Amino acid sequence: MNNPTLDQEPKIVSVLSVSPWFSPLRAALSRPLPGLPVQLRMSPQPRPGTDRILDPHLDCRRAGVLVLIYPCGDEPCLVLTRRTDAVDTHRGQISFPGGSLDPGEDAVTAALREGWEELAIDPARLEVVGALSPLYIPPSGFCIYPTVAYAAARPDFVPNPQEVAEIIEAPLAHLLAPDTRQEETWEIRGAPVRVPFYAVGHHKVWGATAMVLCELLALLQTSETERSMTDGVAARSMAAAHDPRVCD
Q1: Rounded to whole angstroms, how far apart are CA atoms 14 and 67?
Q2: pTM
Q3: Fewest Cβ atoms nearer than 10 Å: which of 12, 84, 98, 101?
Q4: How many other β-carbons are positioned within 10 Å of the β-carbon of residue 55?
């Protein structure tokens, strides 16, 4: 899908009145990130290649992914997709919009392009908030670089039928709720593996997607705490934000 807006300057949207946590989240993303120790809380165990992402000379396939937060109704959501069986990697899995960097691209440009190609998300209507920690995915050999962006209004998602089998909109309050994080033992490649996941509808969000989510949720907990110091928050949100079971 050709994108007529990728070369335009990203639109700066006013979001503070819509989402009081926006400014603290931006501040949290500008500080040193929790990184791999937090990501590993949602990693299948055992997980090969845990320390490879720390290698500055890591030989991997680099990809940008889009972590898009936007209002749906009266609460913030983020969008995930179920991949089709026609894509090259991670077929049928739940993921963020994303894909390999094209020549000359950085991770942010790739993430915005993939958002357009997969879901027709206009990058000119997004504000890039920051980046989460990169993550190495041993089975596919990818290193993913998550870009966090915000849309002031819910995008009119149009799924690319070659890449997207289903659009999944997950409220952040649901992801922060302690009961959303669950764990099962699966057989993967002939061996038992302990798999933590986020239950979203009938979907189980696990693996690299869950690991990226875990770091985002940890930062949202931090931003919620900072916001509560000045503005106060609802008791239900605070209880979820401070519950260690969210990603541990």
Answers
A1: 19
A2: 0.82
A3: 12
A4: 10
* Segment 67-78, tens digit of pLDDT: 999 998 888 999
Residues 224, 225, 230, 233, CA torsion sign: positive
**CA distances to 110, 119, 136 from 104, in Å:** 10, 23, 21
> Residue 88's closest CA among 116, 67, 112, 63?
63
Structural domains in the chain, CATH included, are 22-246 (3.90.79.10)
Which single residue is written with the structure tokens 């949290």? 28
Instruction: Give pLDDT tens digits for 130-172.
Output: 999 999 888 788 899 999 999 999 999 999 998 899 999 999 9
